[in-house]
Write the structure tokens for this entry.
Amino acid sequence: MRLHEYQSRALLAAAGVPVPKGEVAENAQQALAIAETMGGNVVVKAQVLMGGRGKAGGVKLFDSAQDAADFTQQLIGKRLSSVQNPGGIVVEKVLVSEKIEIEREYYLAILLDRAKQSDVVMISARGGVDIEQVATETPDAIVKCYINPKWGVCDFELRRAIKQAGIDSKAVSQMVSMIKKLVFAYEQNDATLIEINPCVLTPAGKLIAADAKVTIDDNALFRHADLAAAAEQTAEDPIEAEAAKHGIAYVKLDGEIGVIGNGAGLVMLTLDEVARAGKKAANFLDVGGGAQAERVRECVDLVLKNPHVRVLLINIFGGITRGDEVAKGVVQAIGELNVTLPIVVRVEGTNAAEAQRILSSANLITADSVQEAAEKAAALAG
Ligand code: GDP
Ligand code: MN
């Protein structure tokens, strides 16, 4: 789960990382009030979950509160798009933040390096809006320092990496301290990414995290009730928010065939087969292993909340998830939810024969293979 900048800042501030003062505004009036408390010297920043907001026109500096408010007025409701996010995202909130004077822009990140099976700190003296270019053209300008899972990072290792990265000598000690706090925040919050770009050195010699991106491991959200609540707020889609609340892996897509399967791989395969049959799926949904009838009912309910769904395609490979349990769940769900849409079900594996019997007696359309199920669903979608 990705956090907005204002949420990321709060998380870092709680760990003692220096961040600029700032508050969220949802309209020009609020922006004006906040900007006035800062003497009009503010930066207004669109709170959208995408990189490159600066280049997309979503970050602007001001020296008048009224100008900041006018910009907020223009920005809210506008769709911002960037190279990383060509489809764009509509701005609902802005962060009105005290304007920092910049002498140098550095780059700091902590993330999970899956190949090395280790968390890693990345440091560069060439932060700012072109860090992607730095990474591809001069990867040596980004210095890595791996975090030992037993004893973490030592000061001397950080100091060495920071110096190697060419960071100003007056910022070295502050950066060692900041990185240690970032590592602490990363571990405490089960993050998979913390990125500070830019990490600003001011003319007065102070190091400040002027932008922050934090991603939390979804599988650890049960340990962080406050962050999980934030996830509901930030989910871009109300159905995805609902799914997050129930702990269901659901991703909204733009087609018309509602898909439910067990196991991410099987669901992906089902999406591919739907595409091969010439249609698009309306969602990705993995019911998970060992899904009981009640769980299946929740999933059917969730998928049907999307008004574009015209056919429901359920693909289960019975292993831990017994086929007859799923079949019962489906029958129960369509009864309770008054489902009128056609439903195609394919069940294979444990108790498949029993499942077929339950489904057929409830007049559901069954299929023997994924391909057949996808083709039947595609035909029914018209
Ligand atoms: P991003 O483009 O989405 O990464 O948004 P950032 O928050 O990183 O802002 C983009 C750029 O705007 C930064 O690299 C800075 O150059 C500039 N910027 C952002 N905040 C400030 C600020 O407080 N003062 C100054 N002088 N520049 C800022
Ligand atoms: Mn940035």
